[in-house]
Amino acid sequence: MKLTRNFLLLSILILVFSCSRKEDPINLNNSNLSIALKSDVGTSDSELIGMNTTVVFTVEGSDGVDYTNESKIFINDEEISGNTYFFETPGLYVAHAAYENITSNELSFEVLVPDTYTLTVDFPKALRNQPIRFGLINDQGVDVSDDAVFFVNGNEITGNVFSSAVDAEYEVYATYTIQDEIYTTDIADFEIFIPKRKVVVEDYTGTWCGFCPAVAVAIDELRAVTEDVAVVAIHKSSSSIPDPLNFDRISELQDMFDVDNGFPKAQINRTVPWPRPYNLTEVTSMAGKNTDVSIAVNSRLNGDNLSVTVDVIYENGSTQGDKLVVYLLENGVVSPQANYYDQTPGHPYEGKGNPIEDYVHNDGLRNSLSNLFGDAIPNLPAYEVHSKTYNFTVPSHYVGENLSFVIMVVNSENNAKNAQYAKINENKSYE
Predict the structure, then answer these.
(1) What pLDDT does 32 receive?
(2) Could you identify which of 33, 104, 141, 420 might form a hypothetical disulfide with 97, taking C-beta atoms 3.0 to 4.6 angstroms apart as the criterion?
(3) Residues 339 and 407 placed together within one structural domain of the fold
């Protein structure tokens, strides 16, 4: 009886551990705690302020806790004393905060030159039909746009809000009057865009797999004809040969997407098999087509502390069940690759050897910063941004400068609606 109870307790513990492992991302700092840096001069990420302005900063955690007193605040990467800063010299300043090994978002401040007026555009890159507001800021940081006249592509508009269904690059300037003299601002550029679809291609592979180079060749051919793909190589060790890019949770992905162990296997947009002979048109027929959701990403790697902020915006609003998937990849991993095409006439890998000793593996899935199958996106109206920050401690065996990201928005059935690719420390805008 005692043995039966102990066995039952052990079974429950194993079940709980297994479920937890599926739900939690790997190695995220402080259970995915993120911090947000805020200031008392405005709510946007970029603010115009007058000279001799004191700004008060606060640091708020995603758990609702105020971390201001426990955090360090930096202006242009130099730590300041306390949480206030006196801006007395014109120029551009960038602020961020750090709590333990967690890095916040960045805030930009432009201290204005005396006796100058500055034209602002609230969305330098906007979706079609998205309202874009123009401002005119005086040297004290006060918006005086009500007293200005705005011109888009040389044509006067009514008020200071503009939208268009035409995707193109635009120019705007303003005129204003001081003591009966008319002044004209510098021209500012902005863009209206229609999101283009990046197709996700996932390559289930292994360094031990002699037929796996076939998918690598197909991916190279894809990239030669389109930039609108986001590639993830998901490696698995064999029973006898370890793979340096082995992804510990690959079996969970295989179970979810019905991918058996007969590698190589390739998937399109997560759920659709891409079988031999890997017909490119199955991918290119979707790549670059118009869609209604776009993704931006900005990452910052400081030592082994990685902070990644992802923004998602919809042209028509989100759909119930949409999720955000954020994958961390590594490129440039050199390791022997089994090659069964060494003796195949005309094959790109003919005569390369078996194995290929100095094979360079790219796009290797290292970690999932989000839940493996995505974090829920709230119900969003059109043009409202969903922003989420992830913090991660990079293991010592990752090469920081070789890291990159594939980010996906997937629906309730795990089909990828759009994707984005970005390198480490890159500020990748909407596309």
Answers:
(1) 67
(2) 104
(3) yes
Residue at 124 is within a domain: yes
Prior bond of 395 cis (ω within 30°): no
- pLDDT value at residue 418: 98
Boundary of a domain, candidates 136, 168, 193: 193
Q: Quick one: tokens of 203? A: 């390559």
Token duo for residue 170 = 């635009």
Greatest Cα pair distance in the chain: 97
Do 69 and 147 belong to one domain?
A: no
Are 53 and 139 in the same domain? no
Q: Do 343 and 392 lie in a common domain?
A: yes
- Residue 160 reports pLDDT greater than 70: yes
| C-alpha distances in Å from residue 343, one per residue of 125, 206, 213, 337, 358 | 51, 20, 14, 15, 18
Question: Residue 306 is part of which domain span?
Answer: 199-428
Going by the DSSP 8-state scheme, the letter that residue 256 receives in this structure is H
Verdict on whether the full-model pTM lies above 0.85: no
Chain-centroid distance of CA 377 in Å reads 14
Predicted pLDDT at 22? 34
Q: Of 163, 193, 223, at which residue does a domain stop?
A: 193
Residues 6+ apart with CB under 8 A from 222: 201, 229, 280, 283, 284
Residue 185 CA to residue 289 CA, distance in Å, equals 37
- The values of phi and psi at residue 7, to 5°, are -65, -40
Would the pLDDT of 229 be above 60?
yes
Shared domain check, 89 and 233: no
Helix (H, G, I), strand (E, B) or coil at 68: coil
Length of the chain: 431
- Per-residue model confidence as pLDDT tens digits over 357-394: 999 999 999 999 999 999 999 999 999 999 999 999 99
How far apart are the C-alpha atoms of 295 and 63, rounded to whole Å?
25
